[in-house]
Amino acid sequence: MDLSPEAIASVDVPSDAVAALERFGLPRQIEGMFYPSEDQRPLRPVELPDGRRAFVLGQNETGIEGLYCLDRAGAVVHYLNGNLRAVNTSLIAFLDALAAWQNFLEAFPEEDEGDDEAYEKSRLSHGRKLARRVKKADREAYRKRGSWWSRVYEDVKRGLL
To answer: 84 Cβ partners below 8 Å, 6+ apart?
Structure first.
C-alpha cells in the first residue's frame, strides 16, 4: 500500500523506518497475517497501554481489534485488548517477516492440504527454514518467550497454521 508523503512525514520514528515506509509502503493484504486497518487510516497515532505513542500499520485479522503498531523507537508491536506483544525490532524486519510468511502461503496453499505425508513433511521443513530466516534477521524479536513470530512458527510446527 502506497502511503502519502504527508502521512509518512507525520510519524515521529527513526529514519530507517521512514525510509522503509517511503520505499516499500505497507502490504495491501497477506492472508491470515496482515490487513489494512479497518478505518483505512494507516499511520494514525495511538497511545499504547504502557504510555508510548505509536502509529498503526494495520491489523492481523479482519473484524478483530488486534493492531500492528510502529512505536517511536522503530519497533513493531501487536496490540490487542490492552496487551502488547513484541513483533519485530524494526519495520524492515517486520516487512521481511511478512514477505517470508507470504512466500510460505504461496508455497503451501490451503487448498492443497490433505493427508499426504510428503506434503506435510515438506510444509513443516519449509516452515522451519522460514522461522530460522526470520529469527536470524531479527534475533531480538525471538528472545522473549511468546513473542509474535516465535508463536506463529510454533503453530506451524504443530500443524495449526
So the answer is: 48, 49, 50, 77, 78
Total domains present in the chain: 1
> Residue 110 in 3-state DSSP?
helix
Q: How far is it, in rounded angstroms, from Cα 98 to Cα 115?
A: 27
Domain that holds residue 138: 5-158
* pLDDT digit string (tens) for the chain, length 161 residues: 668 888 888 888 999 999 999 999 898 888 888 998 877 778 999 999 999 999 999 998 766 678 999 999 999 999 888 888 889 999 999 998 898 888 888 887 766 555 677 777 887 887 778 778 777 888 887 777 777 887 877 777 776 65
Strands (E) located in 72-158: 76-80, 83-88
Cell 519495520, located at residue: 91
Instruction: Quote the cell numbers at residue 9.
Output: 512525514
Half-sphere exposure of 29 toward its Cβ, with a 13 Å CA cutoff? 8
